[in-house]
Automatic annotation (TrEMBL):
InterPro entries: PsdUridine_synth_cat_dom_sf, PsdUridine_synth_N, tRNA_psdUridine_synth_TruB. This is tRNA pseudouridine(55) synthase. The lineage of its organism: Eukaryota, Fungi, Dikarya, Ascomycota, Pezizomycotina. It comes from Penicillium capsulatum. Residues 261-270 have a biased composition (Basic and acidic residues). It catalyses: a uridine in mRNA = a pseudouridine in mRNA. GO terms for cellular component: nucleus. Transmembrane segments: none annotated.
Length: 398
C-alpha cells in the first residue's frame, strides 16, 4: 500500500454473534483511524475542514476527526452475517441498502415463545409441540410467501409516542396505539433442514417471565396473534426505520440502535460516524428483560422439533416475527434460535468477498489489503455504472 490514494466506498463485514452493529462500526473506526490506508482520507478531511468558514469550524470545535464510517442495515447481537459498512463518501450510498432485498437463514425452535421472539429473551409461555411435523410446517409456510402483511415484533425497539415498545411492557403498560401490520414481500422461502426431537442441541431460554410482567406480555402476544394477510393492498409501502447510535460510551451488551424513518438521510454522529440501519429480520431486538419477575425454565423431557429455513425478503421484514407467527400457524409457539444474513444487495457471504471481523485484531497487514481491494472494487463498479448511465442518456437524446 502506497498510502497516497484516498480509498472510500462500501464493503461487507462478516459480523459475529454477540456483537452489535454499532460495536462493529466503533471497532472499524478504532482500527482505521491510526492506519496507513486511511491516513490520506484523514489528511484530506482535515484540509477540507480548514477551508471551512469560522462559523463552521466553531461548530466542529468539540468534534473529533475520525474516519467517517456507517452501516447499512442493523443486525442484532444474536445474528451473524453480512453487515454493509460505508467509509467516507460511501456512507452516502448506505441508504441504498435500506430498501434492497436480503437473504437470510434462520433456525426456528417450537414449543415456546419469548418477549423478544428469539432465544435471547424470556419465555412468556409454552405450548404443545408433539403434533408439529415437517409436513405441517411445509403447509404453513405457504401463507408466508409472496406479498403478506406482517406486524413488527411487539417487544421491539420501535417507538410509539417517543417510547420503545418493550419499555411499555416492562412498565406493565399497554402501548397507547395498536401496532399495525405492514406490507412486506417474501420472494422465496424453503426448508433447508428439519430437526426431529432429540436430534439437535437448540434449547429454550433459561429464564421465564412471571407476575405482572408476564401478564402484560401475554396480553400483548394475544393481541398480536393474527396471521399474515396475503395480497397486501396495492400501493402500500412498508415503512422503514433508520438507526443512529452515538459513541458516547464503550460498547455495551445492549443494542444501541434506535429506529427512525428511513426516508431521512443517514445522520452523522458526533464522532463523524454515519450510521444507518433498516428494521430487518434482525433489527433492534431488545435486550432480555431484567432479573425481576423471573423464574427458571425447565427444559422439556421430550425435546421439541426445530426447522432451518432460508428466504429472500424485501426491506422491513422481521425474521423474528416469522418465527413467532409460524409457531401460531402450526397451533404451537416458536422462537428464532439462530439467524444468518447471507446476502444484502450485491454483497454475499463468501470468504473472498467479506472482511472477517476477527481480521481486525490481526493488524493492518492482514485487514488492510483486503479492505483496500474491496473499496477499489466498489469504486470501479460505481464508475462503470456511471459510464453506462451516461451512455444510456446520450443514446436517449439521439
Amino acid at each position: 500500500m502506497s498510502g497516497e490514494k484516498i480509498v472510500e466506498g462500501c464493503f461487507a463485514v462478516h459480523k459475529p454473534q454477540g456483537v452489535t452493529s454499532a460495536d462493529v462500526v466503533r471497532t472499524l473506526q478504532h482500527h482505521f483511524n491510526p492506519s496507513k490506508l486511511f491516513k490520506p482520507w484523514l489528511e484530506d478531511e482535515r484540509a477540507r475542514r480548514n477551508r471551512e468558514s469560522n462559523n463552521q469550524r466553531r461548530r466542529r470545535r468539540t468534534q473529533r476527526l475520525d474516519v467517517k464510517i456507517g452501516h447499512g442495515g442493523t443486525l442484532d447481537p444474536l445474528a451473524t452475517g453480512i453487515l454493509v459498512a460505508g467509509v467516507g463518501k460511501g456512507t452516502k450510498s448506505l441508504q441504498n441498502f435500506l430498501g434492497c432485498t436480503k437473504a437470510y437463514e434462520t433456525t426456528v425452535l417450537f414449543g415456546a415463545e419469548t418477549d423478544t421472539y428469539d432465544r435471547l429473551g424470556k419465555v412468556v409461555r409454552r405450548a404443545p409441540y408433539e403434533h408439529v411435523t415437517r409436513e405441517a410446517v411445509e403447509k404453513a409456510l405457504e401463507q408466508f410467501r409472496g406479498k403478506i402483511m406482517q406486524r413488527p415484533p411487539i417487544f421491539s425497539a420501535l417507538r410509539v409516542e417517543g417510547k420503545k415498545l418493550y419499555e411499555y411492557a416492562r412498565e406493565g403498560k399497554m402501548p397507547p396505539i395498536e401496532i399495525k401490520a405492514r406490507p412486506v414481500e417474501v420472494l422465496n422461502m424453503e426448508i433447508v433442514e428439519w430437526y426431529e426431537p432429540g436430534t439437535h442441541e437448540f434449547q429454550w431460554p433459561e429464564q421465564e417471565m412471571a407476575g405482572d410482567e408476564k401478564a402484560v406480555a401475554e396480553k400483548l402476544l394475544d393481541k398480536d396473534a393474527s396471521l399474515p394477510i396475503t395480497e397486501a393492498a396495492e400501493g402500500e409501502a412498508a415503512q422503514t426505520e433508520e438507526a443512529s447510535s452515538k459513541r458516547k460510551s464503550p460498547p455495551a451488551d445492549s443494542t444501541s440502535e434506535e429506529n427512525q424513518e428511513a426516508t431521512k438521510k443517514a445522520k452523522v454522529s458526533e464522532d463523524g460516524a454515519a450510521q444507518t440501519s433498516a428494521p430487518d429480520a434482525d433489527a433492534d431486538a431488545p435486550n432480555p428483560s431484567t432479573a425481576e419477575s423471573t423464574t427458571k425454565v425447565e427444559q422439556p423431557e421430550a425435546q421439541p422439533p426445530a426447522v432451518k429455513i432460508k428466504m429472500t425478503v424485501t426491506s422491513g421484514f422481521y425474521v423474528r416475527s416469522l418465527a413467532h407467527d409460524l409457531g401460531k400457524a402450526v397451533c404451537s409457539s416458536a422462537l428464532m434460535s439462530e439467524l444468518i444474513r447471507s446476502r444484502q444487495g450485491d454483497f454475499e457471504l463468501q470468504p473472498d468477498r467479506v472482511l472477517e471481523y476477527k481480521d481486525l485484531e490481526s493488524g493492518e497487514e492482514v485487514w488492510g489489503p483486503k479492505v483496500q481491494q474491496f473499496l477499489e472494487e466498489w469504486e470501479r463498479k460505481r464508475a462503470a455504472e456511471a459510464e453506462a448511465e451516461a451512455q444510456a442518456q446520450a443514446e436517449a437524446q439521439d
